[in-house]
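[[Encoded backbone]]
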Amino acid sequence: MNKKEARALLGKYLEGRCTPEEKAAVEQWYHTLQNDYDWTLEGERRIEMQRQLKQKIDRAIGVQRQVLPIYRRPWVQYAAAILLVAAVATWMLFPKQPPPVSQPVLADVMPGSNKATLTLGNGTVISLDSGANRQLTTQGNTQINQQQGGTLVYTAGIGTVGYPDYNTLATPKGGQYRLTLPDGSVVWLNAMSSIRFPVSFAGEERRVEVQGEAFFEVAASSRQSFIVTANNTQIEVLGTRFNVSAYADEETLKTTLLQGKVKVSSANTVVLSPGQQSVSNTAAGKQTIHVVSNADTELAVAWMNGYFQFKQAGIREVMQQIGRWYDIEISYEGNIPDKQFSGEIARTSKLSEVLTGLSMSGINTKVKGNKVIIIP
């Protein structure tokens, strides 16, 4: 069944024009979907799950999103439409296969949250979370504060000059955090990431070092260039928005530009325009940089917008991201099929919800304590 036929069948069902056979087929998938997802969720989590599923399926089968906002739609019809669109799309997109391996009963794993550690130049370590506003310390003329909701803010005082100390903000597995640098630039850190930066910027450069993944909104400055170093790569900007993915356990380092212009240098130098992405190897030493002209910028920053998003991703790539966010160990058993996965999952989902979604696409798992094992 192609996309056009799937949409036509859904329309016939909603209008009551299906044959008995067509009606039975759609309703079979309706009940299958109810069993696969936890529709007992209440309140905002139920609404959010349904909204995300509706958007995902709409994109998959090419349905235009409705303009009418959720809160103005008849609730029963809207919920039914979500389930029916999902049913038809599942019928169309996924081959028939044996039921996924059942998951053992376990204490569910909650998603990651706003948490990090700040290490000062003198070695002092401060734990950060989403708690209330609090002043942490003062270094030179720069005040350092935690703001409610998971943000660390450096505020440079009037007449601030270069201060020699460097601080490091680091997120653990299952953590993320936001940082406002002394110049007003904002940085979002993904899980298992860190940024090393000076307490105040002096001279002609604003230089920081990144490991893992970070999204930058750089404050424009005509007198100070902004430079990010990651592995063996240097990224120079004047004022822009871009994402850097430089995890040591991944094969590639990617810089994706959303706005402005950046110069990326390693074994060679390239200049990126909005919508472009530079890609290089993470191996030791200088690496050749290649440019992807029509990069999927939405895919690159999905993590910052609260989603896992995959596009023809292998199982190991999918599970690598999930392992970081849920602070779990991932292992593999037997011959893992060379499958590719496309779709998106809310990072607010519980681990059980994520594994259920993956099982619908043929990624089978079993759980032992804090370990998720991928099985054929």
Observations:
- Residues 43-61 form the longest helix (19 residues).
- The chain has seven helices and 24 strands.
